[in-house]
Design a protein that fits this description.
Elements (H helix, E strand, L loop, with lengths): L2 H5 L5 E5 L7 H7 L2 H13 L3 E10 L2 H9 L1 H5 L2 E6 L6 H8 L1 H4 L8 H11 L4 E6 L18 H6 L3 H27 L5
Helix pairs in contact: 6-10
């Protein structure tokens, strides 16, 4: 299944955030293959899936650091790569924090405090943020986004209730998709 078949041909995202809640080091090492870093991540930028100035967030795990280093040429052709020490700059972290009370009501009680622990053990910068470069810039630097174009600005303008609802919605969808995919894969047979 491709992104365009799921979201449509002309959809462009501001953010793609790889979920640190469900990506422990062993899981990430087996799922985020060389091809993911060599081809998929660059294609988000080259095919316009992420807009200029858009951001791809990854948990800062050893396997992610290794892959970014190994495929530095492919990744840095399209992205400015930075480690982020401030978790509050990650929109998913902020949404999860805002939904903390609701997340504690879930059976697994997964919240930022428990899910960030492995990232803090790995590094003082828990996330990598890859920002799409402006291909038309002479110096290759990123096009800066204005406040009207910044999703974080819009997010911070939401009321607390709206932020909580957004966090609940995200985690409910993640839970449903994860369990649906797991169920589908267990019932899939190769012919």
């Amino acid at each position: 299944m491709s992104i365009s078949s799921t979201w449509g041909e002309n959809v462009t995202f501001d953010y793609i955030i790889l979920d640190y809640f469900f990506s422990p080091a062993g899981w990430a090492r087996t799922r985020w293959s060389d091809n993911f870093f060599r081809e998929t991540i660059p294609s988000f930028a080259s095919k316009g899936v992420l807009k200029v100035g858009g951001q791809l967030w990854l948990p800062n795990l050893q396997c992610v650091r290794d892959s970014i280093a190994e495929f530095d040429t492919e990744v840095t052709q399209y992205y400015l790569v930075e480690a982020s020490a401030d978790p509050d700059s990650n929109p998913l972290y902020v949404a999860s924090d805002n939904a903390r009370a609701e997340l504690l009501k879930c059976p697994d009680k997964l919240v930022n405090e428990t899910q960030m622990a492995p990232l803090w053990k790995e590094s003082t910068t828990p996330f990598y943020v890859l920002t799409v470069k402006d291909p038309n810039s002479d110096d290759g630097s990123n096009k800066q986004r204005g406040p009207d174009d910044d999703v974080r600005t819009a997010f911070h303008q939401l009321s607390v209730e709206e932020k909580l609802l957004l966090g609940k919605l995200y985690h409910s969808l993640t839970y449903l998709l994860t369990h649906s995919l797991t169920h589908s894969l267990t019932h899939y047979t190769f012919s």
